[in-house]
Amino acid sequence: MMTDKTVTRRDFLKIAWGAAGVLALAETGAVTLSFFAPRLVAGEFGGVIEAGAVDSFQPGSVTPFTQGRFFLVRMPDGGFVALYRKCTHLGCAVPWNPAEGKFICPCHGSAFETDGQVINQPAPRPLDRFLVTIENGIVTVDTGTPIQRDHASDADLVYAEVQS
Amino acid sequence: MTDNLDPRPDELKQRVWESIQRDELPPRDDRGRMRVVMNNLILHLHPSKVAKPTLKFTYTWGLGGLALLLVALLSLTGVMLMFVYTPSPETAYRDMLNLQTEVWFGQLIRNLHHWSGNLLVIVAFLHLLRVFFTGGFKTPREFNWILGIGLLLLVVGANFTGYLLPWDQLAYWAVTVGSSLLSYVPLIGEPLRTFLLGGPEVGAATLTNFYGLHVAIIPITLMGIVSFHIWRVRKDSLSIPHKLDGSVDGSAGPQIEKVTTLPHLVSREFVFALVMTGAILLWSVWVNAPLEAAANPDHSPNPAKAAWYFMGLQELLLHFHPVFGAIIIPALALGALAFLPYQRFDLSAEGVWFRSAKGRRMAVFGALTALIVVPLLVLFDEYALDLPGLLPSLPTIISNGWIPLAALLLLLIGYYDGIKRIFQATACESRQSVFVLLIVSFIVLTVIGVAFRGEGMALMLPWEVL
Q1: Which entry of A20, A146, B245, B454 is 20 to 30 Å from B139 by CA?
Q2: CB contact under 8 A, A90 and B197
């Protein structure tokens, strides 16, 4: 057994070449991956959408936005939440069922409360939400990143500032 | 000058012919026959001589060859379809309608492609079963088994990417549901899905991505691995069929007779390919590939089902926490499948259908167990068992994941131990029985998903499903 830990010139070159090879492979991989990375097209789903004036949404109403793929929900207490319509189970488009007052997924029967909370499995978590901002009485929804959550909570609700 | 006379024949026609086909046709003796096989690009995939017993049709059922024939048919019809189809949401569905109504024989070519693709999934699966049940994966053929599993996955991938291209409701939602299974992989699942789809939802980018995968990446990879697979078959040769008493099936003594590939193997392959092509053609003339309404991202159909070969997975998903149904159980199953040839194997069982007489009885026992137990378990879980409700303090990943999986694994181990003792069987025979049990379970789950799940994915009788 050799105990000499000195790196010979040959060893050093071997390691250097190996490292250079790995680096080259990693670079090629990065280039390939970036090339195929998802590209967002301007104006498509994924941008910021102006939903309308605060007063145009009645408390206790659910308004679908087909282009933005979300429902703008105004809770009875006046709070807003934007729910991504994609079912958290397997991605089907969940419609609002006004007769039963809940969201019912046609694919596998998941059901959600008005605020997105799961009533019926198999959905593993509430409907994702989008960021809602209210400025000068206008509601805008950022459909860029769906926000996942384990439980729907009142903290998700956004209120219009009280006009003085 | 006269010493340098060209020895080749003078007649141009004959000189051209001999530049292409060097050997005499038809060959006059075995030596000539072997030389023809060796010198022909396609025939050279075969060895020049094969063991006579392996020619028996009911040993291989021609499944590997049939898979290859289907790949050829798929390439041919697929390339034709590329000329009349544009992968964009604006044009894809219109092109499909156009293909079916305006293009001469368009419907027929589409049917051929569609049915060959679906049949290929079944044939590749049956091929895997055949190789397993005759012990055809043992030394030195272990690695070819792994290549085969890779090919099966590629075939499913080709099917899945092709599923989207018609851009009808069926395509759109099956791919939405199917790709959503990926989201349940911890950490990398969601980014991987977004990468594959080219965005958060199935859309224009998805169609472009899937088209590229379907017509280039997957076929090229498939061709590469298929060549490797066949080359290994040629190098390792087929396992020899044996009868239960250990004697070679199709040979009088222990000496195994070898015959020339041409004509013995080639003629059989040719006839089988011709018959199967005829059968697929006939089927495609009569049965049209489905095409539903144009894709509508705003409206999911009820129920939305994945492609039929994913229905077993989708059924699992209805009973387990998604991480288990979509990821852990399939990964365990695939891992076990890949590991199979590296386990101890009775050499006497190679080439014997189902290992031995006892192995056959135990295989039937495994199949019957699955046929009875799996529907009962599904019914029990659907109507009686509510683990998350019973154990409300635990997260569902434990109550509906670890607990039922552990219970099932314990049952499987109990089954293995039990039958090994009851039948006084070898590990090899008992393992086969477990394999049969699992395979039949998977088939039963697929059938339940396809035929017994209707609106809202509720259980119902097949004639109510529609």
Answers
A1: B245
A2: no
Measured in whole angstroms, how far is the alpha carbon of residue A19 from the centre of its chain?
Answer: 38
> Do residues B124 and B70 touch, judged by C-beta distance below 8 A?
no
Q: Quick check: A45 and B201 CB within 8 A?
A: yes
A6: β partners: none
Report the 10 Å Cβ neighbour count for B24. Answer: 12
Element (H, E) at B70: helix B63-82
3-state SS class at A153: coil
| B88 inside 8 A of chain A by CB | no
Q: Identity (one letter) of the amino acid at B304?
A: A
Return the closest-CA partner of residue A48 out of A63, A70, A64. A70
Rounded to whole angstroms, how far apart are CA atoms B323 and B260?
53
Burial class (CB in 10 A: 0-12, 13-18, 19+), B41: exposed
How far is the C-alpha of A36 from the C-alpha of B277, rounded, in Å?
A: 38
**Tokens encoding B110:** 């589409």
Buried b (16+ CB within 10 A) or exposed e, A138-156: ebbbbbeebeebeebeeeb
Q: Smallest CA–CA separation between A151 and chain B, in Å?
A: 13
Q: Can you give the pLDDT at residue B418?
A: 95
Token reading at A114: 């008005």
Residues in chain A with CB shorter than 8 Å from the CB of B317 are 90, 122
Report CA-CA distances (Å) from B106 to A152, B84, B278: 51, 9, 18
Q: What is the 3-state secondary structure (H, E, C) of B88-120?
A: CCCCHHHHHHHHHHCCCCHHHHHHHHHHHHHHH
CA distance B366 to B381: 22
* pLDDT(B322) > 90: no
User: Rounded mean pLDDT of B249-267?
Assistant: 87
Q: What's the DSSP call for residue A69?
A: T
Distance (Å) of CA B195 to CA A31, A37, A128:
14, 6, 20
Give the residue from B144, B148, B178, B181 showing the smallest Cα distance to B164. B178
B321 contacts chain A (CB < 8 A)? yes
CA dist A45 and B204 (Å) reads 12
Chain A contacts of B321, Cβ < 8 Å? 124
User: Does residue B276 register a pLDDT over 90?
Assistant: yes
Q: How far apart are CA B449 and CA B440, in angstroms?
A: 14
> What tokens were used for B9?
């024949």
> Cα–chain-centroid distance for residue B332?
18
Specify the pLDDT at position B8.
Answer: 64
Mean pLDDT is lowest, of B215-219, B304-308, B433-437, for B304-308
